[in-house]
Amino acid sequence: KSLANEFFQNMLKGAEEHAKKRGDYDLVAVGMKNETDFESQINAVDNFITQGVDAIVVAPADSKAMVAPLKKAMDAGIVVVNFDVALDADAKKAAGVDLAFVGPDNRGGAKLAGDALGKVLGKGGKVVIIEGNPGADNAAQRKAGFEDSIAEYGLELVDSRTAHWETEEANTVFSNMLTAHPDIQGVMAANDSMAIGVVKALESAARTDIQVVGFDNIPAAQELVTQGKLLATVDQYGAQMAANAIDLAIGVVKGGPPLEGWVKTPIDLVTKK
Question: What is the DSSP letter of 63?
Answer without folding.
Answer: T
